[in-house]
Amino acid sequence: MKFVVSSSELLTPLQALSRVISAKNSMSILENFLFRLSGQNLMITASDLETTVQASIQVQDAAEEGVLAVHAQRLTNSLKDLTEQPLEFTLSSDGVLHISHAKGKFQLPALPGDDYPEPQAIKEDFTELSIPAPTLLEGINRSLYATAEEELRPVMNGILFDLGKELTTLVASDAHKLLCYTRKDVVASKASRFILPKKPASILKNLLPKVQDNIQVRFDDKNAVFHFPNYLLICRLVDGNYPAYRSVIPANNLNKAVVDRIELLNSVRRVAVYSNQASNLIRLKLEQDEITISAQNLDFSMSGYEQIGCQYSGEPMEIGFKWVFLAEILANLPGQDVSLELSDPSRAGLLIPIGLTDPNEDICALIMPMMIGA
Description:
Layout: E1 2-6, H1 7-17, E2 32-38, E3 41-47, E4 51-58, E5 60-63, E6 66-71, H2 72-79, E7 86-91, E8 96-101, E9 104-112, E10 127-132, H3 133-143, E11 158-163, E12 168-173, E13 177-183, E14 192-197, H4 198-207, E15 214-219, E16 223-228, E17 231-236, E18 255-260, H5 261-271, E19 281-287, E20 290-297, E21 302-309, E22 311-313, E23 317-322, H6 323-332, E24 337-342, E25 349-354, E26 361-367
Antiparallel strand pairs: 1-5, 1-7, 2-3, 2-6, 3-4, 4-17, 6-9, 7-8, 8-9, 10-15, 11-12, 11-14, 12-13, 13-26, 15-16, 16-17, 18-22, 18-24, 19-20, 19-23, 20-21, 24-25, 25-26
């Protein structure tokens, strides 16, 4: 195997694919990138058995097609500080990969590529969906933070793609907060759903910012394939049934406060300094045109409150939230203003951004309350 490639054109996919490789692998071969040279095309693969990502780049002066595996971390660390320049890769007959550049040369042992596991193929009766890359990226950005880290309920550790004939909703929840990101311009030929695990969602989040084309998504009951220019991501889906999320979203919330999102977020963060570290409880008292945010820690004789303006319609009420979750939701919602919609202090509150510019986009966040006496 022999080829010449630009250092920057190679390093970009190497750094992207390095996110796939786990610190602890069940197979030592998975510590490596798989290089497959075919003509002038070099395909690079990284896998942890659950998630596989492939990147394709064009090389020059290619000769002696072949397959090899090379240690991912050593290769990436060797190249990351090089200036833009051509690199010549040559595999010698004794299984050593030689990498030559203008001022030096590296040698790395190469392993036979035949031992590298093949990604799981999806079934012939797959479901297919096309999503614009910016739309998919926005949905992942808006929902990924709300996923859980639970061993007993793995279905909560990913993003639900709930596909319908009229709209598609991405859902994430950790049972304390829930985020629904809905697109009216992304539809499927039939109602279907799958749960994308957190790791491949995070990898897509890093790959998609420079992509403007449509992402072709194919999935069956076990695996999903995301195909877009120069990259292919294959992942095993979370097995299980996602909870009936629509049933927990309260309707007919008569108490509504429209407030500046950043002002409320900053106030919550400041007052939270005085909350009890065990409970993280913060109180919101809603009255006509005003919200009072307060917290106290009786163990250390600390308390604090702030008052901010709002447009409130409803009965005066006081509700408690875990401030960490409230701040997290506020930080991840878009727009200047947000509507806080409540039924009563014992039911979940809704946070809905006001004035979204895209008519095809809807965002709704839910946060569970805490008992005031907690």
